[in-house]
Amino acid sequence: AVQANGHAAGVMVTASHNPKEYNGYKVYWGNGCQIIPPHDEGIASAIEANLALWERPSAEAVAAGEVPGVFDSLPSVADGYYAALADGLRFRGGGKSGAASPRAPLVAYTPLHGVGGPW
């Protein structure tokens, strides 16, 4: 999404089946790769200099483009991402997702500690 939209950087929330204390985030630079030095140190310094909580913008304001510097990339990349993902799947019978398949894949989505979106 960072590269597709020409952004300077992006953040991805990470989590697993563990409690929220183990959740985190990954930062991606404009080249679409995870950050490396010296960018990680610059970001850490900026965080340390801004420990006071900010007022959280509403989802509606973000969706309307009313929050400078904040962009929800999901609507612009989700369809292409899912199409590429489906194109790479192999189904029983050897065909790709567009070919007739005897059985569709089964998917289980389990965001046990609530970090998943409303999917």
TrEMBL record:
TM region(s), chain numbering: none
Gene Ontology CC entries for this record: nucleus
Gene Ontology BP annotations: carbohydrate metabolic process; purine ribonucleoside salvage
Alphabetic keyword roster: Isomerase, Magnesium, Metal-binding
Domain Alpha-D-phosphohexomutase alpha/beta/alpha: 4-50
Entry keyword annotation includes Ligase: no
GO molecular function: magnesium ion binding; phosphopentomutase activity
Superkingdom classification of source: Eukaryota
Family label: Belongs to the phosphohexose mutase family.
Protein name as it appears in the record: Alpha-D-phosphohexomutase alpha/beta/alpha domain-containing protein
